[in-house]
Design a protein that fits this description.
Blueprint (H helix, E strand, L loop, with lengths): L1 E2 L8 H17 L24 H7 L7 E2 L14 H11 L7 H13 L8 H15 L3 E5 L5 E5 L1 H10 L1 H4 L20 H6 L8 E4 L2 E4 L4 E3 L4 E10 L2 E14 L2 E15 L3 E3 L1 H11 L7 E5 L5 E2 L11 H6 L3 E15 L8 E9 L4 H4 L6 E6 L4 H18 L1 E5 L4 E13 L2 H7 L68 H11 L10 H8 L5 H4 L2 H12 L4 H14 L6 H13 L25 H20 L3 H13 L12 H6 L6 H14 L6 H17 L7 H22 L8 H4 L3 H8 L8 H15 L6 H19 L4 E2 L49 H5 L3 E2 L3 H5 L6 H5 L14 E2 L5 E2 L4 H4 L4 H5 L7 E3 L3 E3 L5 E3 L3 E8 L2 E15 L3 H4 L5 E12 L6 E12 L4 E5 L1 E3 L1 H4 L2 E10 L2 E11 L6 E4 L22 H30 L15 E5 L2 E8 L5 H8 L1
Parallel strand pairs: 10-12, 14-18
Antiparallel strand pairs: 1-2, 3-4, 4-16, 5-6, 7-8, 7-11, 8-9, 9-10, 12-13, 14-15, 15-16, 17-18, 19-20, 21-24, 22-23, 23-27, 24-25, 26-27, 26-30, 27-28, 28-29, 29-34, 31-34, 32-33, 35-36
Helix pairs in contact: 5-29, 14-37, 18-19, 20-23, 20-24, 23-24, 24-25, 25-27, 25-37
Protein name: Transposase
Length: 1177
């Protein structure tokens, strides 16, 4: 029981008046702030109030005796003392509504002014924070990095334990991979988890009939055979085991077993009979050898490889560590990116690590509430922070994480692992110790080579992670080294011009994935480790740079240490023996392992487990490149006005996006976001018609086909899908090549070739897209803005930890009750005079390493023993705090805690309108049989004709929208397109009782051939209608008028509103020329793209070799012509002479006349006959 009591002082009226007076006086005397200034008011990082606690305390009207009674979980507002502290604690820690101290003070003032009497002060709230956070929150851990920077990381094990104890999350988590056959929709169904992940990191056991079966332990089947399970997985909702067959054998007179690891087959869990302990105790009765004696695995007829998977005498190590408890796997998506800590344009780079559970379904994995913060720093580079995270991960993988399972209501042991590391291309290259997009080997996944004459010096960017054309180029720190220093750009050397055959060879290699696979991560690491012996140390820089160029591997973490050695080797004034001694002394201060921490992540290959990130490669890559190019080619203002009008007039029904702002998309083409490019790629083939050449329109259509495949959340047939995707990517690259070979100077056009393989390994590309993580950057930025910037890593980590606690408590998560609570009045150590507030210890200038005491490898949660957790009573917050989330959907809107998966069931009606007679509906005139559609004999003829109905996929379908529906015919089910004419809800019907529509009336259409310009199918409306059940309609679809053939004009016909008032002038808009039944199916639609598959047109395959050859010849001819024009211009006019006057080119003599400055005589030399002939042509 923690007493947070404050004493009653003056009478209510006196104290209330004094408080309001003081607040008003402080507000009126506050100095003005220049809103244009970048300066921000400082706040105290020790969570102190804006005013002194003593004076603030005296102004509060009343004071309760507030006590956190941890031994009484039955109290109404447990674990908070009362409603007031609960509400204020929520307001202080809502992630999306981060408040500053002044804003919190304003909230307090507003509550008191409204008559609330029992509000706790800021100091009381801080004390409550200090009590609750250690009990049911996440702890932040200080690390002194190997590169000399201090940073803070939240407890990875504690966050994972919270996820297991959170009933909302735990009910959705999957721990076993699944064999889903040809379909693929989740990460646990893909090959990385199902087949490749190290078996020691997968769920090692299942519990069946009170027996625990572990992998790599002999088990007896019901048919009497013995097998060795190697992996557990799901198939058709049953648990299966992939096993190796075992045979009894007598070797050197000792009976035992051999494991035939070449004979693998699948066994259903219901066929298991005896687990390892029971087999050990009963093997003699069955006449079988002791299962603890394994002679090995056969490699030939008479040779055996030793069994190394486990100790045969004791079985799987997790059995002993679990002690009878369940053991589950917990793979994660690990993400890192840089974001600015400022809201202004001034860049304040923060590298941040986030993660989310890979075992969550796709629709939940990127929800904001399921994304967890690990670490951020504006001084420590990513790999230095990763070092601390890997240290936590390694301990957790060795020991397992004890957590309370809210489903089984018991302790379980959790094994974390990294399924993949996500980020933009520069960040993934840094993780992979890859030289980056500007290197000779620009691809981190294969050994394709770029233009050898287009390489940049390795010294230019020690990170080697530039991303040509991506938003990350705007970073002010794009050339920071690992230790925070800057590298100067070196001048590029002259580039050799390639011949036609050289260009053809380079492009053919560029658009092909090499057959040979990349080296393993272990071989990569071994190749790049430099032997730091004294003879090499003095001349290692050239050798190191050469290895980077030849291998494409660049370990910037190791590079920071090597640079310090190189600095000594090039230092003047010291002899070679002295330098050797200095280097030896310096090397003794280095940590034992100076290579990148990514190599220490178990079963993780950074070259293959960093999947193609579709946001930056496609939307912020190809779509951005093409859109900027398209807008730049519109030189005339009239053409841009036409494009703006087409965009603003575009019908977006079925696309799931807001109406487009043509003015923004065209005039600010260089400052658009991923959301803008998502809309552009779905409309570009229509709005650019007639403004660009036909080849460019075809390239847009090919790109749209790739996008619709990539953004599919569910894949029904994986093999067919991969074939379709590879075909679409190849066609897109062929269309791009037909435009210009210069596009293939951008590496993203090669990286996309690896996407099909990554989808096989990790699941649909939407799973490893980073939009959710990118959105989370706004929360990190808000925490940075509301801190005092003195210790950003610590302060942001603490704010995020408080947010974790709030989410856990309000989700009904379990936490420990009977533990000793910390004292809220615990004092902090005082800072010594002159001591900096910053926690960073930068590297000293003399290259010496400060002596640091390494922290304990165990985090606060990992230090908790099984005995301590077993003796703990696990409780949840009371019901009253949880009910607060239902007020105005607060939990769903601001905390992201959605309790229901289905918001509106299919058939739900909106905009019912007034009742009308059945005879006045369009359906009655179409002879629809009302009794058959209502489901009962009708005695009324009253109906509603709603304006909107919700479809089965969640789409809101309006009258006038186009829909895709299934029609049953004599030859089977056919997919059709229709236009919604009327939505009917019959009064008194079964559907009306549940607020749903009875049927939808649609007009039929005929789907024709593909249009030559749009490369999409045309449809034509016919004079027939059909009544459909809601379940027959699959989705809404976007169709566009065939403006290209009907010569639709742009006229000033659209109303303009200013300040919500209609203005007198009109804006340009598209006026469609009829016939109105000439339409085109927009198969560039991203939503429900799989449903539109029958209507998609497959273009004729292009001959790649011919396209590359023709494009190379055109490029060579254009380059040659340009060189000739420049040479001729130089001969005729001569280059402009800069000041001061340089030596005259081509023999031109500059002579002053009579000493008059600025007056010269230009003496042209006599040209050769060949040159004279060229000039006269």
């Amino acid at each position: 029981m923690v007493d947070l009591d404050t004493h009653l002082e003056q009478p209510l009226a006196v104290r209330e008046t004094a408080f309001l007076t003081a607040q008003l006086h402080a507000y009126l005397n506050e100095p003005a702030v220049d809103i244009d200034s970048d300066a921000e008011p400082e706040e105290r990082s020790d969570a102190a109030s804006v005013t002194s606690s003593d004076s603030e305390e005296s102004y509060h009207p009343t004071r309760k005796h507030r006590v956190i009674d941890l031994q009484n979980p039955g109290s109404e507002w447990f674990p908070w003392p009362d409603k007031e502290t609960c509400v204020l604690d929520i307001l202080r820690h809502v992630p999306r509504c981060s408040f500053s101290k002044k804003q919190n003070a304003a909230i307090h003032w507003g509550m008191i002014a409204l008559g609330l009497r029992d509000l706790p002060s800021d100091r009381v709230m801080d004390d409550i924070d200090k009590v609750l956070q250690p009990l049911c929150g996440i702890q932040s851990i200080r690390y002194s990095g190997k590169l000399g920077h201090v940073y803070y990381t939240n407890d990875l094990a504690g966050i994972i334990a919270q996820e297991m104890a959170n009933p909302i999350v735990r009910d959705k988590l999957q721990f076993l991979p699944e064999d889903s056959g040809p379909s693929l929709s989740q990460a646990w169904q893909a090959s990385r988890w199902l087949h490749e992940l190290d078996s020691d990191l997968t769920t090692p056991m299942i519990r069946l009939n009170a027996q625990d079966y572990f992998i790599h332990e002999p088990a007896v089947l019901k048919d009497g055979s013995v097998c060795m399970p190697t992996r557990w997985f799901k198939r058709n909702n049953d648990t299966w085991a992939r096993v190796w067959r075992m045979w009894p054998i007598i070797k050197e007179g000792v009976p035992g077993w051999i494991v035939a690891n070449q004979q693998s087959y699948d066994v259903k869990s219901s066929d298991l009979l005896l687990s390892f302990p029971d087999f050990v105790s009963t093997h003699s009765h069955r006449g079988l050898p002791d299962p603890r004696i394994i002679h090995g695995m056969p490699t030939s007829t008479d040779k055996f490889a030793p069994w190394k998977q486990t100790d045969p005498a004791h079985g799987n190590r997790w059995r002993k560590q679990a002690g009878g408890h369940r053991v589950v796997a917990f793979p994660v998506w690990l993400y890192c990116d840089d974001t600015s800590g400022n809201t202004s344009k001034k860049w304040n780079k923060h590298n941040s690590f986030l993660f989310t559970a890979a075992g969550l379904p796709r629709q939940y994995v990127h929800q904001e509430s399921n994304i967890h913060f690990l670490s951020t720093s504006n001084i420590a580079p990513p790999l230095e922070m990763l070092d601390g995270i890997v240290e936590q991960l390694k301990v957790a993988q060795d020991q397992g994480i004890w957590a309370w399972d809210s489903y089984y209501r018991e302790l379980v042991l959790v094994i974390p692992s990294v399924l993949a590391m996500l980020g933009d291309n520069p960040m993934q290259s840094e993780f992979a110790c890859h030289i980056g997009f500007r290197g000779k080997f620009f691809c981190r996944a294969c050994w394709v080579q770029g233009d050898p004459e287009d390489e940049e010096d390795d010294e230019e960017d020690i990170g080697g992670n530039s991303d040509t054309g991506s938003v990350s180029d705007t970073s002010a720190s794009s050339h920071d080294t690992a230790d925070g220093k800057k590298k100067k750009k070196k001048k590029k050397h002259a580039k050799k011009k390639q011949t036609v055959s050289e260009m053809v060879s380079r492009v053919q290699q560029f658009v092909t994935v090499p057959i040979q696979g990349p080296e393993s991560s272990g071989k990569h690491s071994k190749n790049y480790k430099i032997n730091l012996n004294p003879p090499l140390s003095l001349a290692a820089r050239p050798n190191s740079n050469g290895k980077k160029t030849k291998s494409g591997i660049k370990d910037v973490f190791q590079g920071a240490f090597l640079e310090r050695i190189f600095a000594i080797s090039t230092k003047r004034g010291r002899s070679k023996p002295q330098k050797q001694v200095d280097i030896a002394n310096l090397r003794r201060t280095f940590p034992p392992d100076i290579t990148s921490p990514v190599w220490r992540i178990k079963d993780f290959d950074p070259h293959q487990d960093t999947p193609v990130e579709i946001l930056h490669v496609i939307l912020l890559g190809f779509v951005k490149y093409f859109w900027r190019d398209a807008v730049a080619r519109l030189k005339k203002k009239e053409d841009k006005d036409i494009l703006i009008a087409r965009l603003s007039s575009f019908n977006v029904s079925g696309l799931g996006i807001s109406p487009l702002s043509g003015h923004t998309l065209v005039n600010y083409a260089g400052s658009l976001t991923g959301r803008d490019f998502r809309a552009i790629v779905q409309v570009a083939p229509f709005v650019l018609q007639g403004l660009l050449p036909e080849d460019k329109i075809h390239a847009w259509t090919a790109l749209s086909a790739v996008v619709t495949l990539v953004w599919q959340p569910h894949i029904r047939d994986l093999d067919r899908f991969i074939l379709d995707l590879e075909t679409a990517i190849d066609h897109f690259l062929d269309c791009t090549c037909r435009l210009s070979l210069n596009w293939f100077n951008k590496p993203k056009f090669h990286v996309i070739l690896h996407l099909p393989a990554h989808i096989r390994r990790f699941g649909p590309a939407m799973l490893f897209a980073t939009e959710g993580f990118e959105s989370f950057n706004a929360i990190i930025r808000a925490c940075s803005v509301h801190s005092n910037r003195h210790a950003p890593s610590r302060d942001i980590a603490a704010r995020m930890a408080h947010g974790n606690r709030l989410r856990h408590l309000l989700s009904g998560g379990f936490f420990r009750q009977n533990v000793q609570a910390p004292t809220p009045a615990a004092s902090k150590p005082k800072k010594k005079p002159g001591q900096s507030s910053s926690a960073a210890d930068p590297l000293p200038k003399d290259n010496s390493q400060p002596v640091r005491v390494p922290p304990s490898p165990e985090t606060p949660w990992m230090k908790l023993t099984l005995a301590e957790l077993s003796d703990t009573r696990w409780v949840t917050a009371a019901a009253a705090p949880l009910r607060l989330l239902d007020l105005n959907s607060f939990g769903a809107r601001l905390l992201g805690l959605e309790k229901s998966e289905e918001k509106n069931p299919a058939g739900t009606c909106q905009k019912l309108g007034t009742q009308k007679l059945w005879s006045r509906t369009v359906s009655s005139k179409a002879n629809v049989f009302i009794q058959a559609m209502s489901g009962r004999n009708q005695t009324t003829t009253q109906v509603h004709t709603p304006g909107v109905v919700v479809l089965g996929n969640g789409d809101s379908c309006n009258v006038g929208d186009s829909v895709v529906y299934d029609e049953v015919t004599t030859i089977g089910t056919c997919r059709r397109i229709g236009n919604v004419v009327e939505i009917v809800q019959i009064i008194g019907s079964v559907a009306q009782e549940s607020g749903k529509a009875d049927f939808v009336l649609v007009s039929r259409t005929i789907v024709g051939e593909a249009h030559a310009l749009y490369c999409m199918r045309q449809i034509e409306g016919i004079d027939e209608v059909q009544a459909l059940n809601i379940g027959d309609i699959q989705c809404t679809i976007n169709i566009q008028h065939n403006c290209a053939d009907n010569n639709c004009r742009v006229e000033r016909s659209r109303k303009v509103y200013q300040e919500r008032e209609e203005a007198t002038q009109k804006a340009l808009a598209v006026t469609h020329t009829f016939p109105s039944n000439d339409w085109v199916v927009n198969t560039a639609q991203m939503r429900d793209a799989a449903t539109l598959e029958p209507f998609r047109f497959t273009p004729q395959r292009l001959v790649r070799s011919d396209i590359i050859r023709v494009s190379a010849e055109l490029e060579y001819a254009a380059r040659k012509q340009k060189a000739a024009e420049l040479k001729a211009a130089a001969l005729l006019t001569g280059p402009a002479a800069p000041a001061p006057a340089p030596a005259a080119p081509l023999g031109i003599v500059l002579t002053s006349v009579d000493g008059v400055p600025g007056l010269v005589i230009i003496d042209f030399p006599t040209p050769s006959p060949e040159l004279a002939e060229k000039c006269t042509q």
